[in-house]
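Sequence and fold
=================
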Amino acid sequence: SDIAVRVITRVIGHYPARNLILVDLGWTGCSKQGEACHYGRIEGHPELVIGGLKQEAGLLKSVGDSKLDFTKYPLGMVLRVEPYHSCAHTKQHDRIHVLKEDKETVAEVWAICHGW
């Protein structure tokens, strides 16, 4: 609850034979920092970790390589990544959506300052 930043991603594919879930979040959306810590955590899904990142897509796998129940992660499902390094993740975007307590309603939109 003390993590201020979340990066939103969606489930866009299933690879049952490889026990992997494809999401639309790659290193261009979240940064390659924290690879040893799986780039962060998947909020509300301690059974999942980010197993790898491509430029615009990522692969989720199960903790301990246990068999995934793909029906729990339908195509289009929205997941929230709690990033390993919030500054590096945030700089990948042009704005931040500040949410109200319900974690759904946008209260404000902040522009990201690029450059120093």
